[in-house]
Amino acid sequence: MIAVVNVTTNWYLGLGAVLFSLGAVGLLVRRNPLVMFMCVELMLNAVNLTFVAFARELNDVAGQTVVFFVLVVAAAEVVVGLGIIVAILRRRPGATADDIAMMKG
Amino acid sequence: METAVFFVASAIVLVGALGVILRSNPVHCALSLVMTLFGVAVLFINLDAQFLAAVQVIVYAGAVVVLFLFVIMLLGVDRAENLSVEPLRGQRPAAVSLGGCVLALVLVPVLRGHKVITGVHSAGGVLHDKPETQANITRLAHSLFSDYVFAFELTSALLVIAVIGAVMMARRPLREVAP
């Protein structure tokens, strides 16, 4: 029966919205900095999915180009962010987001 | 066919996302993240973005998640987190209701409007033409190396800066050198 349903762009946008919300809730709920970072990746992927869906809907290649840039920036962000997390957790093993509320070490 | 692929891939994506936010062990979270990223790659193929699907698998599911797992193993934080205690009382219901509000805010216009897509076309060119003359990767390359070439060059600078920053951040502090 599902073959009758026609998947339009709105379905992809809806899936992107659900994925973004899941990432946002995970970012707010989890306390482990690494898992919070993974939730940021979920949100970035939701936005990428939305961009690609719009690119097909509008028949415009720029949406896919933007996704390429988002991938590059996300890779750079992961490298720097994990560097910071390594530096923090080396000083204080087992630190959670609650323990690092102050910037001053 | 597209419908079946969409439903299977979105089930994979959502199960993986729930795994990321509900599993207590960070290693399980990272493996759930691989599942989500792979599902998104399948959806990219469904949306005629073949090159981005390949990049998604190589960069995200390959490099980024391996980096996460390296950090988890390196720091030895692969202990299960106790998720039953709530460090800040009332924070979880607030977070979930806030997420629900965000979801409703986005989902209501998307599901109600039949045509929510507006805006003008970019300078990048079209994704398809009939009959098809160029592959997806060719069109993307033309767009990337002509209209967006300055942004492309800036990303190379960004990557160099990120690598230097990560090396500075992650190395051990230098010993005091005796004068």
What is the secondary structure topology, with strand pairs?
The complex is a heterodimer of chains A (105) and B (179).
Chain A: H1 9-29, H2 33-58, H3 62-91
Chain B: H1 2-22, H2 26-46, H3 50-75, H4 91-112, H5 136-147, H6 149-170
Helix pairs in contact in B: 1-2, 2-3
Spell out the key features of this protein.
heterodimer; A: 105 residues; Helix Hairpins; 0% strand; B: 179 residues; Four Helix Bundle (Hemerythrin (Met), subunit A); globular
Largest sheet of chain A, in brief, is:
none
Q: What general outline of chain A do the C-alpha atoms trace?
A: elongated
- The end-to-end distance of chain A, rounded to whole angstroms, is 60 Å
Count the E strands of chain A: 0
Roughly what is the average pLDDT of chain B, rounded to an integer? 85
SSE ordering of chain B: HHHHHH
CATH architecture of one domain in chain B: Up-down Bundle
Task: State the major sheet of chain B.
Answer: none
N to C succession of SSEs of chain A: HHH
The helix count of chain A comes to: 3
Return the CATH topology of chain A. Helix Hairpins
> Would you state the CATH class of chain A?
Mainly Alpha
* Second CATH tier, the architecture of chain A: Orthogonal Bundle
Shape of chain B, please? globular
Strand proportion of chain A: under 5%
Just give the CATH class of one domain in chain B.
Mainly Alpha
Oligomer: heterodimer
User: Low-confidence parts of chain A, pLDDT < 50 over ≥5 residues?
Assistant: none
Fraction in beta strands of chain B: under 5%
Distance between the termini of chain B: 73 Å
The helix content of chain B is: 55-70%
